[in-house]
Write a structure and sequence with these properties.
There is one protein chain. By secondary structure, the protein is an alpha/beta fold. The protein is 43% helix and 21% strand. The chain is built from six helices and six strands; from the N terminus they run ββαβααβαβαβα. Strands 2-1-3-4-5-6 form a six-stranded mixed sheet. Helix 3 crosses helix 4 and helix 4 crosses helix 5. The two termini are 30 Å apart.
Length: 194
């Protein structure tokens, strides 16, 4: 695999939760990359000091079944399956891509899954991918972050926040980034990043 110089993190997009039908869960569905290929890719990246994470979620049914599958009864088991998958394949963590932000019940579940994931292995990275507009999406993202902090009291709930930006000017995007950063540092115990 060719990896451009200067890359230090790769996020494989977009996977799904798989119900093993025995009370356990795992991840899969990463495009046309099978697990043997993933393992070889992750090892090649590790040899070059590049971390690899996987992304799950997306915009709902248009990508996978992730957010339709998770519920109050299985959220902790789903998080354990994600941690086990990361361990089995040498991954640095999981990016949670919740694009259905207008669903407060789902946002709470996503946050709860992220909190359990973080508690099960604090060394794994847990990131959130969100839409860019701060004033439009901040209260919904706060629902997710509040659900994580309910479990990880007093800790920064995220390793990182990915901000999807497609349509706004660079000036607007920089303003959004500043607002997101202020929210994370002022309310959620996150250290300032350079």
């Amino acid at each position: 695999y060719y990896i451009p110089e200067g890359v230090n993190l790769i996020n494989i997009f977009v996977g799904e939760i798989i119900d093993n039908k025995d009370g356990t869960y795992t991840l899969g569905g990463f495009g046309n990359m099978n697990l043997d290929q993933m393992d070889a890719f992750v090892q090649q990246c590790k040899d070059q000091n590049i971390k690899v994470k996987v992304s799950i979620g997306g915009g709902g049914g248009s990508y996978d079944n992730t957010w339709e599958l998770i519920n109050d009864q299985n959220v902790e088991a789903v998080a354990k399956g994600m941690v086990d998958f990361c361990h089995a394949h040498g991954l640095a963590g999981v990016d949670f891509d919740d694009e259905d932000l207008n669903n407060p019940d789902l946002n709470k579940l996503v946050g709860t899954a992220m909190g359990h994931f973080k508690l099960l292995d604090p060394s794994l990275e847990v990131t959130l991918c969100t839409n860019a507009g701060y004033s439009t999406w901040s209260s919904q993202v706060e629902t997710i972050l509040d659900s994580i902090t309910d479990l990880v009291h007093g800790q920064c709930p995220l390793t990182g926040l990915y901000i999807m930006s497609y349509y706004n000017s660079l000036e607007e995007e920089l303003d959004f980034i500043t607002q997101w950063a202020n929210l994370l540092t002022e309310k959620y115990f996150c250290p300032k990043s350079t």
